[in-house]
Design brief:
binds 1-O-phosphono-alpha-D-glucopyranose; alpha/beta; 13 strands; 300 residues; Spore Coat Polysaccharide Biosynthesis Protein SpsA, Chain A; two-stranded antiparallel sheet; five-stranded mixed β-barrel
Length: 300
């Protein structure tokens, strides 16, 4: 592989959203901090980036997001108390999040859409390809997606989106891709993208989910991308331009994901994620599964 494609090291996590679907819980607490079992949702996402080798993380935040910074920072007072109590395992849990990665922050200011949030990362990212991870999507760590996307970028250059085949009735909730097969079963070439299409306009049932590996050429395209669906600057629209003009920054490919994914931005899926992950935990799982079994058989 040529030196012009150095390994990706930076991840961008847009985290400026208001989380209105979870009100009133998100009135004073960022939605990214809602716990999935006993860890905030955002920590799973940072862990996923780190596991894929991306230890430089930029969070694009907004007002009221200070708890995110606190969570990934040291808490000396708490650490001191746990140390004095000799509670080593909780101390380790507290230190885990501050030792994970180097985390940087930039504020979005005006909420002008996902494309605009990604553009806010331009000065930090510079001229390298980078990953974008959306906090609402939780990818099961046993089904690595980002690694496969990074490999795909190393092979074809350009940008890579994550695709999931969804029920056609759900396509209007996502960016949707027109695709052509490649020689690899789980990789497709993306020839077009539409943000949240009406069913009649949807080119397929391949939905874009919240993982992207992007060529830095996307910044130049985003700078001139006009507001689209919902009056917001859409990342999907910039990727559509890249897909149509590979001369701008290489082709766009899609990795078709078949693993476990939870949309923690949706209340039902958020609950399902908690139940599944709790069932699978070594410490909580056995008791919780017993309770769940009797609850389902006796009370539902
Ligand atoms: C965003 C993107 C959309 C993508 C989705 C994945 O939409 O704009 O293309 O399919 O994330 O979760 P949002 O869910 O923020 O409205």
């Amino acid at each position: 592989m040529s030196d012009s494609r150095p390994r990706i090291s930076k991840a961008v996590i847009p985290a400026a959203g208001l989380g209105t679907r979870f009100l009133p819980a998100t009135k004073a607490t960022p939605k990214e901090m809602l716990p999935v079992v006993d860890k905030p949702a955002i920590q799973y996402v940072v862990e996923e980036a780190v596991t894929a080798g991306l230890s430089d993380v930029l969070m694009v935040t907004g007002r009221n997001k200070r708890p995110l910074e606190d969570h990934f920072d040291r808490n000396h007072e708490l650490e001191e108390v746990l140390l004095r109590k000799g509670d080593g395992s909780r101390l380790a849990r507290v230190q885990e999040s501050s030792d994970l990665a180097t985390i940087h922050y930039v504020r979005q200011g005006d909420p002008r859409g996902l494309g605009h949030a990604v553009l806010c990362a331009a000065p930090h990212v510079g001229d390298q390809s980078f990953a974008v991870l959306l906090g609402d999507d939780l990818i099961d760590p046993r089904d690595p997606l980002l690694e496969r996307m990074i490999e795909t970028r190393e092979r074809y250059g350009g940008s890579v989106v994550a695709l999931l085949e969804v029920d056609p009735a759900q396509v209007h909730l996502y960016g949707c891709a027109a695709v052509r097969p490649t020689a690899e079963d789980d990789v497709v070439e993306v020839s077009g993208l539409v943000e949240k299409p009406e069913p009649a306009e949807a080119p397929s049932n391949y939905a874009v989910i919240g993982r992207y590996v992007l060529d830095p050429a996307v910044f130049e395209v985003l700078r001139r991308t006009e507001p689209g669906r919902g009056g917001e600057i859409q990342l999907t629209d910039a990727l559509q331009e890249l897909a149509r003009n590979p001369a701008l920054g290489g082709p766009v490919h899609g990795v078709v994901f078949q693993g476990r994914r939870y949309d923690t931005g949706d209340r039902g899926d958020y609950l399902r994620a908690i139940v599944r992950l709790a069932c699978e935990r070594e410490d909580l799982g056995p008791d919780f599964r017993d309770w769940l079994r009797s609850y389902v058989t006796e009370e539902l």
